[in-house]
Amino acid sequence: MISIAILVVLVCGGLIVYWQAGAPKRAAQANAVSFARKYAGLKNETNFYLFNRKATYFTVAGTNTKGQQVYVIIAKKGGRTVVLNQSAGISEQRASSLVKSQEKSSRVLKTNLGIWQKKPVWEVTYLNRSGKLCYTLFAFKNGKTVKEIQNL
């Protein structure tokens, strides 16, 4: 009985720690969605991205009140907002497939949309064939490689 009680306490404690660790991201997502609804006319959201480079950007993907599929990119500092039509550039799936097609990736870990040097980019984080962590930034507009960081 004592072993079961200890196991229950450990599992519950682990779940509480996990929940608390995700709280800042959930709060940022809720704020970004609210902001996108108010200032960019977002009606339905389909995805959320958190982009950290020299600055932090929150991106909400979804449909606006005109029925257009858009990305709303919000700067953490200053609240500067960029609204992009999803059809004006490459998709998240295309950015991931670019890494795979260049035979650099053994596994894509995540893909985020943000702003780098005043241009929208997809950041693809992946493990290369040697198991090393890598990042590649692709221009949203045309999928060209903007920056690569290899073998971290």
UniProtKB/TrEMBL annotation:
Read off the SUPFAM superfamilies from this record.
Answer: Cystatin/monellin
Give residue ranges for domain Cell wall elongation regulator TseB-like: 32-74
InterPro entries on file: Cystatin_sf, TseB-like_dom
Q: Name one Pfam family in it.
A: TseB
The record's listing under Gene3D superfamilies reads:
3.10.450.40
The protein here is known as: Cell wall elongation regulator TseB-like domain-containing protein
